[in-house]
Specification:
26% strand; three-stranded antiparallel sheet; alpha/beta; Rossmann fold; Arc Repressor Mutant, subunit A; 10 helices
């Protein structure tokens, strides 16, 4: 005879499952715990109220908090092949005549690295590493002024925001620390979030988020972009299929870059 679990025990089991698998379907949890889907929905609602997870259509994703910004060098070592492929796929969206904004971060750097050498484009960025990547190319790159942040290899602050207020872009490429259905795109650093929001505000074309699969479900303190501000997400094929469907239902176009093809193909 199967032991009936009390709510606290069920919720603990659900949390433990999500900590291992990051995502779960209500139907699976119902079978695993041998309770109705209505009971599972109530458990998920309670866990969401505690900040443990975010409910999705038919299930839930684990909420993972990112209170501290990772060092640039350490971030660059995380999923490097996926980031290269994402950068290549995103760079293919850049067209001659574009003026683009690119923010800080290792994946955003890969976008600049993969822009065609002879592209007739202007890149405006606060990403110092991205500017260095472009030093031997023919396209124009404008590095914003501001206070240098060694941890992120970026510049931020009043000088950067004042410069941005004098120009518009045809596309913006935003690297993020976290991507979530409930909280959108987030970062631990307010100054970085402020710049990203301003880039989006001053873009008259597509807003393109570049993020590998590990960013899904991560939530940090400062909002960079709402989901309804994002036109395209370029990610890798490890991104949760349920998450893709949820984002697509919110009118976000999903482009998948495969490390095996260095981003040349998408779905």
């Amino acid at each position: 005879m199967t032991k009936i679990l009390i709510p606290a025990q069920r919720r603990k089991r659900i949390q433990e499952f999500l900590e291992v698998h990051q995502v779960a379907q209500s139907t699976f949890l119902s079978e695993m715990l041998q309770v109705s889907e209505a009971t599972i929905r109530r458990d998920l609602e309670w866990l969401e109220s505690q900040g443990v997870l975010e409910r999705t259509h038919g299930g839930a994703t684990l909420s993972r908090r990112l209170p501290v910004e990772p060092e640039y060098s350490l971030s660059a070592q995380t999923h490097p092949l996926e980031k290269q492929a994402i950068g290549a796929r995103a760079a293919a969206l850049v067209e001659d005549g574009d003026t683009i904004f690119v923010n800080s971060g290792t994946t955003a750097t890969q976008v600049v690295r993969h822009i065609r050498d002879r592209a007739r484009v202007t890149v405006i960025t606060n990403n110092v590493n991205a500017a260095l990547e472009a030093q031997d190319t023919d396209f124009e790159i404008i590095l914003l002024g501001g206070s240098f942040r060694a941890r992120a290899k970026s510049v931020v602050g009043r000088f950067a925001t004042e410069a941005l207020r004098q120009v518009y872009a045809s596309k913006t490429f935003i690297g993020v620390d976290g991507l979530s259905l409930k909280y959108g795109c987030t970062t631990p650093i307010n100054a970085e979030a402020e710049l990203a929001r301003l880039m989006i505000e001053r873009t008259h074309g597509s807003v393109i988020v570049v993020a590998d699969h590990s960013k899904w479900g991560i939530v940090s303190n400062f909002e960079m972009a709402r989901l309804d501000q994002i036109h395209i997400l370029v990610t890798d094929d490890g991104f949760d299929s349920g998450g893709r469907a949820e984002l697509a239902a919110r009118s976000v176009e999903i482009l998948i870059a495969s490390p095996e093809t260095n981003g040349r193909y998408s779905e």
